[in-house]
From TrEMBL:
<feature type="domain" description="DUF4142">
    <location>
        <begin position="11"/>
        <end position="140"/>
    </location>
</feature>
<protein>
    <submittedName>
        <fullName>Putative outer membrane protein</fullName>
    </submittedName>
</protein>
<keyword id="KW-0472">Membrane</keyword>
<dbReference type="Pfam" id="PF13628">
    <property type="entry name" value="DUF4142"/>
</dbReference>
<keyword id="KW-1133">Transmembrane helix</keyword>
<dbReference type="InterPro" id="IPR025419">
    <property type="entry name" value="DUF4142"/>
</dbReference>
<keyword id="KW-0812">Transmembrane</keyword>
<feature type="transmembrane region" description="Helical">
    <location>
        <begin position="176"/>
        <end position="197"/>
    </location>
</feature>
Length: 216
């Protein structure tokens, strides 16, 4: 069965995940040999192995869906690798390694999450979910080193997602209010119908006078 071409956002995700692996795999490999802290070495090893596995899945998906993938890091990624390569000491290497990768993972994490939440493509959704788990684990591992400089990370932004969420909450509140009012009206109508059934009005014949209840 032929696969349809992915949409722009889905195609961009596949390319970005591949692009991330092109520099994060060698960075993780360097961490194994150049870091002084064993925990940083272990983090580097995990990143290298995870991205290797994810890269296999990415290339297979790209081949099925007709997406052309990059084969080398971007100019920025090459610059980040150069910073690690030229670090004058193991301590400086660890600092650059952790902070560069933490910042990059934060960017791709948001992109993956957006596609995962909104795509209508089942295969892309499954791929995004898998990639999302990998990236979140890497963020957690990088932060566990204690070397992340959080002041250098970009401020969280409140964009269309937040606005949409607020609108959804407003809509939900309106719907709830309307439901409550409708339920109250239906309840009142039901009570009235039951009362009328239990207390049927007596029909008077023509010429018959109404006798008050006190006179009966």
């Amino acid at each position: 069965m032929a696969q349809t071409e992915p949409g722009t956002a889905e195609r961009d995700l596949i390319i970005r995940v591949r692009q991330a692996g092109l520099w994060e795999m060698p960075a993780g490999d360097w961490a194994r040999t150049r870091a002084r802290d064993q925990h940083v070495k272990d983090v580097g090893m995990t990143l290298m192995v995870d991205h290797g596995r994810l890269d296999v899945a990415t290339r297979a998906l790209a081949q099925r869906r007709g997406v052309t993938l990059p084969d080398q890091p971007t100019a920025d990624q090459q610059r980040w690798l150069a910073e690690m390569r030229d670090a004058p000491s193991p301590a400086e290497f660890e600092r650059v390694f952790v902070n560069r990768l933490r910042a990059a993972h934060g960017v791709i994490f948001g992109i993956i999450a957006q596609v995962r939440a909104n795509t209508r493509d089942d295969e892309i959704r499954a791929f995004a979910a898998s990639a999302n788990q990998v990236v979140l684990r890497h963020i957690t591992l990088l932060e566990s080193t204690g070397l992340v400089d959080y002041t250098q990370l970009p401020e969280p932004v409140s964009g269309t997602a937040s606005a949409s969420a607020g609108a959804a909450l407003d809509l939900a509140a309106t719907d709830i209010l309307a439901t409550v009012v409708l339920a109250a009206l239906l309840c009142g109508a039901t009570v009235l119908v039951l009362w009328l059934i239990r207390h049927p009005a007596k029909r008077r014949r023509p010429g018959e006078k109404h006798v008050p209840a006190s006179e009966t």
